[in-house]
Write a structure and sequence with these properties.
It is built from six helices and 21 strands. Strand 20 and strand 21 form a beta hairpin. It has a single domain, classed as UDP N-Acetylglucosamine Acyltransferase, domain 1. The longest helix is centred in the first third of the chain and has 18 residues. By secondary structure, the chain is of the alpha/beta class. The strands form five sheets. Strands 2-5-8-15-18-20-21 form a seven-stranded mixed sheet. A five-stranded parallel sheet has the order 1-4-7-14-17, with no helix packed on it. A five-stranded parallel sheet has the order 3-6-9-16-19.
Length: about 240
């Protein structure tokens, strides 16, 4: 059983003995709760990205990505093996054109029949979920990380080991089934894109986009609903 200790309670008790700072109270509570920086990151809380576990996970996926990006066109089996090692979860019939880059990879899942064109970048400091039958054009970026707005919160600070670090947090991204992201689309943290939606080239998606629409722009906004009038006459139909 995990006991979550109340930070304010520590403050009341501390006033009877000594004057603990807010940072000290946070350290005490986190130590008793036994929560790792990885757990804080995935919970959307401030965390230290210089943590050893997180650094090791980033190193692992970047080594895998380099191996994938260095493959030749005739190494399809090797590409599949490397892709499945990078994604946290993936369906059948997935393909990505090199190069690709991840922050962690293990926090990203994709459904069946996923395709990403050249230069697919996923900064998956929070969970990234992508549905089935999704097509991404070249230079698509999914950016879950968020930095504090005020410089005094965002600035680098000593880590006690001779280096520096900064506090970051992240917000999850969810993309439904049958979504097409055209070239150079950026999807920001905290966004949900509904199933069957198309995002136009060069869009920056900063807020939720509903299902079944065409949306575009910076910031991205709904242009119109997709209807049966958009249906194309396919061969042999």
């Amino acid at each position: 059983m995990t006991i979550h200790h109340d930070k304010m309670a520590y403050g009341k008790l501390a006033s009877l003995t000594e004057d603990f700072s807010a940072d000290r109270l946070n350290e005490m509570a986190d130590a008793l709760n036994g929560r790792s920086e990885r757990e804080k990151m995935l919970a959307g809380e401030l965390y230290d990205p210089a943590d050893e576990e997180l650094s090791a996970l980033r190193k692992r996926v970047r080594q895998l990505a380099k191996a994938f990006n260095d493959t030749d066109e005739d190494e399809a089996e090797k590409r599949q093996e490397l892709l499945r090692a990078m994604f946290g979860k993936c369906g059948a019939h997935i393909a990505c054109e090199p190069p690709i880059r991840f922050d962690y990879g293990c926090n990203t899942e994709v459904g069946d029949c996923f395709f990403a064109n050249f230069n697919f970048v996923v900064l998956d400091c929070a969970p990234v979920k992508i549905g089935k039958q999704c097509f991404f054009g070249p230079n698509v970026t999914i950016a879950a990380p968020v930095h504090p707005l005020l410089p005094q919160d965002r600035m680098m600070r000593p880590d006690g080991r001779g280096g520096v670090f900064d506090y970051e947090y992240a917000k999850p991204v969810t993309i439904g089934d049958d979504v097409w992201l055209a070239s150079n689309v950026v999807v920001c943290g905290g966004v949900t894109i509904g199933s069957g939606t198309v995002i136009g080239a060069g869009s920056v998606v900063t807020r939720d986009i509903p299902a079944g629409v065409f949306a575009a722009g910076n910031p991205c906004r709904v242009i119109r609903k997709l209807t049966e009038q958009d249906k194309m006459q396919l061969p042999n139909e």
